[in-house]
């Protein structure tokens, strides 16, 4: 099957190649004229696929005339896969940046836009600047989807400016930027604040990094702080009283922790409650879960750092600081409590989205990377994209040596350093890879001890990193880096290095197979010589965290033998590879669960955004407002079976007015007459408000803001509820049989309630708000 797909790609390649001579013969003007021609063909009903050969041949020739680079056949093949909405596996250094020019141009011809997403701003800007001349020469517009001048970073970008970015035919940006812009775009209170147009086509560069490694942390836009609970502190104290195994247990992978029956009783004593799992004690239970995770799963230096009195979450696989990670679930605060630093304010989530659902909004999604084949099943299941391997232009002659396995970290590192010295003496450039920021510093110290000059990259400064990585291929260069550091930057070999054997990648830690391949691939690009070797110890975090009981026993037996040799047993190698498989399987299933939950959220989010857009676009809101008011009043009245005059007064003072109320003496306490009375009351109050406003347009704006705010407030509550629900409904949690089902059922019930709450909230917003006009007669609404 795979063979067949590649064959199909080659067929199309031939049609592109057949046009090469024709394109070469064209004058510059004629070549530029192809854009108009192709657009006309599209307009006349030809499909994207039909015009592909001509479009690709055009870009190819333009790439050559403007940049002096003529895309190789393998690049055109990659480009064809990208247009299919699939993933092209192309090794590092094969020229993915240039490859993307073809599908971006082709898919932008329809006028609906095309985007390329890179792992960071630096790469997006680099690629955009390199390729802008080609696109502009061909008559297309191009932009970066973010502000380039870093000096103005803190200034808010005006919607009009963003609109201009996103209106460009081709946009280079990051998935993070896009996710946040999408969320803010949908939080706007009127159309002028919006800037996105419907998503059309996207290429995700380094697609595995974005879709697999980062897929589990949703992007979150936070809003007003909510009340801080002192349960963090209590739960933290409680956790200090617990004993491992007796009160709580961890799963083998140390990714989950839960209370034992004994621990549950302990909690009930500590918090003086009868039943920890009673709905009334949900918050207590949640805080205990958080404190347990903060103490027994999150590790300082690996999962987070404490610096300057602040807790910063780290992305474990690459040592980078995590951006936009949810502070709403409270894990952050639980860690702060554990580390005894000041608690950050809890924020309400105003909007959130994960990558899978963000990309679900595009007509066509494609990706490229050097290391995706091993995860092709997941890409297909989750994203319906196929992975197609593109052959390298030249044969890969890099030598990947088998792992060397040691018992202890010390042995492993000293052996790795020994090889480093040996290769360094030959003058070969070396990339030493550390598994965490902490370890990169230890390695750096060891090198200093040996008097070897080197650079350390720990993924804090992306631009500086790229500069250093560029030079990592020079003779005698030694570069220490964490996994992700400098990804996307090509390491070109310096003078005389080919003769010496090229770049040597030396890994110093057990890492997931995909990450290993990615790292090895930094050497031996474009047919260069090179090598890779990984040094592993049984103390490595990855192993310690993921190994089975049996493995641990085996490890202890080895320890007794006090061996410091390279461990070669077949059994050990098998165990390690099984361990790797198991971890990938676990990660896959946790991504799957998040995806499942996100799917429920996505349906709700779409529904909500649709409602919002309706409200935003409706020219007259009087009727809708009347309906919301009437429904809101009914909902309030349905809270009680029978009403006394006092009850009515209390209700009104909470939700309708702060003034003293004189109820009419003859008011009947039936729901019909109460409803009638309240509706009239609201009507009169709104009429008074209207008199303060300049015109009916302003009145409309007041209605709009009140209803939108009501919707948003209830949506925020809903999302806070969902993320708490996610914490509570976990597969390892107590006796729940099917957590996914429970989550989705509860999520749906809550969503239905949400719209009711929104209507009640709308009553409050319309009635209790105060309005005023500023000196330019602009409307200002204060909600209470
Ligand atoms: P990748 O992203 O696949 O790792 P890059 O896009 O960074 O690779 O390209 C690697 C290098 O190869 C760059 O310096 C680029 O300019 C060069 N390159 C790419 N395609 C061509 C080509 N067709 N002809 C000449 N040089 C090329
Ligand atoms: Mg690249």
Tell me briefly what this model is:
By secondary structure, the protein is an alpha/beta fold. It is 53% helix and 12% strand. Residues 96-97, 205, 488 line the site of magnesium ion (MG).
* Count of discrete structural domains: 4
Radius of gyration over alpha carbons?
Answer: 30 Å
Mean pLDDT: 86
**How does the major sheet shape up?**
7 strands, parallel
Q: Which stretches are poorly predicted, pLDDT < 50 over at least 5 residues?
A: 732-736
Output the number of helix runs: 30
Q: What ligands does this structure carry? A: adenosine-5'-diphosphate, magnesium ion
Q: What is the first-to-last residue Cα distance?
A: 63 Å
The name of the CATH topology of the largest domain is Rossmann fold
Apparent shape: globular
Pfam family, one: SecA_PP_bind
Family: Belongs to the SecA family.
Catalytic activity: ATP + H2O + cellular proteinSide 1 = ADP + phosphate + cellular proteinSide 2
Subunit structure: Monomer and homodimer. Part of the essential Sec protein translocation apparatus which comprises SecA, SecYEG and auxiliary proteins SecDF. Other proteins may also be involved.
Describe the protein in words:
- By secondary structure, the chain is α/β, with parallel strands linked by helices.
- The chain folds into 4 domains: 2-222 and 356-389, Rossmann fold (3-Layer(aba) Sandwich), CATH 3.40.50; 227-345, Alpha-Beta Complex (Pre-protein croslinking domain of SecA); 399-568, Rossmann fold (3-Layer(aba) Sandwich); 602-782, Helical scaffold and wing domains of SecA (Orthogonal Bundle).
- Helices cover 53% and strands 12% of the residues.
- The strands form 6 sheets. A 7-stranded parallel β-sheet has the order 3-4-2-5-12-1-13, sandwiched between helices. Strands 14, 15, 16, 17, 18, 19 and 20 form a 7-stranded parallel β-sheet that branches. Strands 6-11 form a two-stranded antiparallel sheet.
- Strand 19 (503-507), helix 22 (513-520) and strand 20 (530-537) form a beta-alpha-beta unit.
- Helix 26 (622-637) runs antiparallel to helix 28 and helix 26 (622-637) packs across helix 30.
- The radius of gyration is 30 Å and the shape is globular.
- 41% of the residues are buried.
- Residues 732-736 have low confidence and may be disordered.
- The structure holds adenosine-5'-diphosphate and magnesium ion.
- Residues 96-97, 205, 488 line the site of magnesium ion.
- Residues 69-72, 75, 90, 92-98, 490 line the site of adenosine-5'-diphosphate (ADP).
- Residues 408-573 form the Helicase C-terminal domain.
- It is a peripheral membrane protein.
- It is an enzyme of class 7 (translocase).
- Its EC number is 7.4.2.8.
- Monomer and homodimer. Part of the essential Sec protein translocation apparatus which comprises SecA, SecYEG and auxiliary proteins SecDF. Other proteins may also be involved.
């Amino acid at each position: 099957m795979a063979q067949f797909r590649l064959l199909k790609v080659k067929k199309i390649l031939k049609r592109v190649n057949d046009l090469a001579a024709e394109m070469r013969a064209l004058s510059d003007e004629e070549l530029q004229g192809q854009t108009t021609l192709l657009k006309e063909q599209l307009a006349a009903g030809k499909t994207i696929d039909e015009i592909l050969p001509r479009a690709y041949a055009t870009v190819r020739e333009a790439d050559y005339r403007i940049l002096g680079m003529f895309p190789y056949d393998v690049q055109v093949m990659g480009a064809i896969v990208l247009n299919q909405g699939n993933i092209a596996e192309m090794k590092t250094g094969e020229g993915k940046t240039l490859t993307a020019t073809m599908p971006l141009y082709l898919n932008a011809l329809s006028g609906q836009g095309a985007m390329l997403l890179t792992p960071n701003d630096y790469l997006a800007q680099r690629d955009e600047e390199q390729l802008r001349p080609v696109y502009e020469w061909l008559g297309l517009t191009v932009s970066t989807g973010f502000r380039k001048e870093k000096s103005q970073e803190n200034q808010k970008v005006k919607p009009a400016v963003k609109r201009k970015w996103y209106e460009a035919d081709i946009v280079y940006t990051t998935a993070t930027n896009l996710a946040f812009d999408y969320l803010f775009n949908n939080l706007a209170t009127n159309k002028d604040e919006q800037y996105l147009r419907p998503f059309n086509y996207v290429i995700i560069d380094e697609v595995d990094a974005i879709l697999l490694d980062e897929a589990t942390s949703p992007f979150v836009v936070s809003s007003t702080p909510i009340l801080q609970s002192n349960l963090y502190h209590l739960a933290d104290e409680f956790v200090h009283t617990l004993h491992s195994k007796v009160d709580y247990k961890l799963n083998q992978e140390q990714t989950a922790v839960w209370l034992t029956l004994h621990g549950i009783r302990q909690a009930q004593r500590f918090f003086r409650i009868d039943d920890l799992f009673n709905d009334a004690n949900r918050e207590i239970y949640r805080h205990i879960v958080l404190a347990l995770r903060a103490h027994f799963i999150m590790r300082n230096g690996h999962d987070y750092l404490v610096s300057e009195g602040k807790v910063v979450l780290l992305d474990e696989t690459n040592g980078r600081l995590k951006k936009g990670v949810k502070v709403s679930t409270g894990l952050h605060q639980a860690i702060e409590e554990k580390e005894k630093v000041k608690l950050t304010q809890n924020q309400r989530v105003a909007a959130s989205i994960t990558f899978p659902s963000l990309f679900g909004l595009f007509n066509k999604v494609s990706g490229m990377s050097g290391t995706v084949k091993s995860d092709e099943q997941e890409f297909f299941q989750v994203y319906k994209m196929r992975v197609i391997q593109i052959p390298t232009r030249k044969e890969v002659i890099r030598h990947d040596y088998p792992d060397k396995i040691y018992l202890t970290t010390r042995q492993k590192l000293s052996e790795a350093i020994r090889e480093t010295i040996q290769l360094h003496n030959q003058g070969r450039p070396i990339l030493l890879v550390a598994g965490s920021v902490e370890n990169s510093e230890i390695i750096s110290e060891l090198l200093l001890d040996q008097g070897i000059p080197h650079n350390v990259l720990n993924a804090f400064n992306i631009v500086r990193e790229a500069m250093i990585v560029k030079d990592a291929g020079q003779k005698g260069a030694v570069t220490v880096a964490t996994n992700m550091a400098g990804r996307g930057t090509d390491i070109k070999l310096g003078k005389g290095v080919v003769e010496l054997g090229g770049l040597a990648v030396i890994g110093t830690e057990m890492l997931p197979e995909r990450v290993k391949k990615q790292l090895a691939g930094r050497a031996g690009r474009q047919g260069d010589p090179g090598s890779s070797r990984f040094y592993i110890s049984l103390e490595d975090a990855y192993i310690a965290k993921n190994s089975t009981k049996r493995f641990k026993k085996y490890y202890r037996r080895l320890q007794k033998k006090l061996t410091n040799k390279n461990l070669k047993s077949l059994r050990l190698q098998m165990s390690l590879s099984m361990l790797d498989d198991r971890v990938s399987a676990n990660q896959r299933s946790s991504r799957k669960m998040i995806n499942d939950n996100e799917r429920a959220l996505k349906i709700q989010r779409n529904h909500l955004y649709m409602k919002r857009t309706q409200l935003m676009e409706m020219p007259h809101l009087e009727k809708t407002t009347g309906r919301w008011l009437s429904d809101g009043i009914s909902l309030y009245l349905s809270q009680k079976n029978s009403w006394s005059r006092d009850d009515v007064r209390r209700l009104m003072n909470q939700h309708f007015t702060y003034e003293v109320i004189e109820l009419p003496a003859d008011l009947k306490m039936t729901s019909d007459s109460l409803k009638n009375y309240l509706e009239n009351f609201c009507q009169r109050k709104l009429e008074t408000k209207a008199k303060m406003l300049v015109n009916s347009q302003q009145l409309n704006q007041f209605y709009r803001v009140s209803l939108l705010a009501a919707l948003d407030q209830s949506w925020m509550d809903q999302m806070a509820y969902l993320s708490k629900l996610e914490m509570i409904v976990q597969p390892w949690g107590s006796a729940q049989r099917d957590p996914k089902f429970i989550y989705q059922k509860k999520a749906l019930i809550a969503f239905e309630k949400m719209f009711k709450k929104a209507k009640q909230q709308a009553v409050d917003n319309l009635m209790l708000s105060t309005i005023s006009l500023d000196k330019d007669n602009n409307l200002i609404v204060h909600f209470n």
